[in-house]
């Protein structure tokens, strides 16, 4: 298997350009980029692929197998453009170069599409009544995984799949809790990170099985506190990760809950593998130690996008709940 596939719809298809750039002619296969169209880039002399979302749109071109050195040479040749991952008509996953403005539009659309797919998945979880008393957490997790495969052909998840119930809902993400059978009066949450077209979703939702008013109040407070945190983020352009964490903590306490988790309330999100690779860097998290403004760019010069996650717990009642999704988009 080649190290990389690169889809070209422009001058990299020309043998003379390939010889000048790579020292040889490349073997290519005709393919197409669905959901894109060609638009003028700067002037009419050059056109760039622009994501349209229309199923009948497609940009014809050629896909090439490249070594890492070849890809670096292509990056140099395409300086001024950004390389993004795409799915081709053939089903192959490849890189393609797009204009910088188009690239950010592409990333936003892909992140929102990934989240929409995850929301549809969790809606179907409810419709099929998969969160049910008498079922084990592990069995429910496996059924949600299988449902994602059925609905979207998704087989990859960027973090461990989590279904927790009862006292397990108090514990932070890093803990590997023992499998537990759900009871009729339980509260449970699911936290999944499916990958769609090489972009990550990260969604958490809470479910109450019985009539316990405290558990229902917590389930109702989760999205309310999320939206309050989102408004606070929107209203403070220079907000840092530490600032937003403090606000979420204050909102939780005002509602009568404590923040659970491992000390952070969200993280960067993007293409897979995402910025979690910088897990040792506090700047990747909505956390007390992150004094960096959240609105900025990452090391690759891309706009930072964030997941906000709300983990509320009632230690005395021995239960908790969880809610997460995109903070700055949608």
Helix-strand layout with pairing:
Blueprint: E1 4-8, H1 15-22, E2 28-34, E3 36-41, E4 43-51, E5 58-66, H2 68-77, E6 81-87, E7 93-99, H3 100-127, H4 137-152, E8 162-165, E9 187-192, E10 195-196, E11 199-200, E12 203-208, H5 213-235, H6 241-254, E13 258-259, E14 266-269, E15 305-314, E16 319-326
Key features of this structure:
330 residues, alpha+beta, Hypothetical upf0131 protein ytfp, Creatine Amidinohydrolase, 2 domains, 4-stranded antiparallel beta sheet, 3-stranded antiparallel beta sheet, 16 strands, AIG2-like_dom, GGCT-like_sf, AIG2 family protein
Report on the architecture of this protein.
This protein is α+β, with helices and mostly antiparallel strands and 330 residues long. The chain folds into 2 domains: 97 residues, Gamma-glutamyl cyclotransferase-like (Hypothetical upf0131 protein ytfp, Roll), CATH 3.10.490.10; 199 residues, Creatinase/methionine aminopeptidase superfamily (Creatine Amidinohydrolase, Alpha-Beta Complex). The protein is built from 6 helices and 16 strands. α3 crosses α4 and α5 runs antiparallel to α6. About 2% of the residues have low confidence. This is AIG2 family protein.
